[in-house]
Amino acid sequence: MQQLENGRISVLGRELEIAQIRARRAGRPTLVFLHEGLGSIALWKDFPAGLAERTGCGALVYSRYGNGFSTTLAEARTPAYMHDEALRVLPELLRELAIEDPVLIGHSDGASIALIYAGEHSDGIRALVLEAPHVFVEELSVHSIAAVRREYETTELRTRMARYHRDVDRTFFGWNDVWLSEEFREWNIEEFVGRVRVPILAVQGIEDEYGTPAQLERIARRARAPVDRLLLARCAHAPHRDRRAVVEATLAGWLA
Fold first, then answer.
1. Quick check: 109 and 82 in contact, CB under 8 A?
2. pTM above 0.90?
3. Contact 152, 175 (CB under 8 A)
């Protein structure tokens, strides 16, 4: 299996850690991996490399501002933080790396970012793969995010997370605070979903503690392109970890 080549890049005045694999086959798109709210390059583990190996595609993985070992978060996040990433940061990152016609593979917050980006730039991407996407705020999400805050403050979760983030408290509370704020309850990206014109594969675990299949149903109803859905038993919020074999095989076949 090819190894990711690590590096750093400055985007809009912030240093982002990135990792890349070159495509093994001509004409294949670059798979751009967009992590969850508390994710980073390292937390994808070798899933991007494995999928690149199976498909012959190139891959780009990066830690967003405030996550992993990219520039540390300096201010409180706002409810528009996913819009900022999709409409300002991601276009500039792809331009700097000369990545055209990518497939965006997003997990949780990353899937929402992919949808917002595609709503503005459907002509510039080939497809979307969405794991556990959010298009509106569910009570289940809020309840679980409040529960993980208690876990962070009372268990060894903080210690475990600290291996993956430069400033774990800023990363955690930067994400957790905004999701638990009253103003975030009205967050909704269906307007962008309604403008997506590229094929979508949406994947969700039936036991997902942060969202329900209603998210996938809303995407299928609003998007202007085919939406294939994969619901997985014995699977929670991270299908590529909980059911890696079936997810990797399904994605590889769908991308082919």
1. yes
2. yes
3. no
Helices (H), the chain: 47-55, 81-84, 90-96, 109-121, 139-154, 157-161, 168-180, 190-193, 214-222, 239-242, 244-255
pLDDT recorded at residue 122: 81
Q: Give tens-digit pLDDT for 205-246.
A: 999 999 999 999 999 999 999 999 999 999 999 999 999 999
- Residues 61-70 have pLDDT tens digits of 999 999 999 9
pLDDT at 5 over 80: no
Q: Which residues contact 152 (CB under 8 A, 6 or more apart)?
A: 158, 161, 172, 176
Closest CA to 145 of 186, 116, 115, 174: 174
Q: How far apart are CA 245 and CA 51, in angstroms?
A: 11
DSSP H or E stretch at residue 231: strand 227-232
How many angstroms from the chain centroid is the CA of residue 63? 10
Domains recognised in the chain with CATH numbers: 5-255 (3.40.50.1820)
Say if residues 107 and 34 touch (Cβ distance below 8 Å): yes
- CA–CA dist 44, 64 (Å, integer): 13
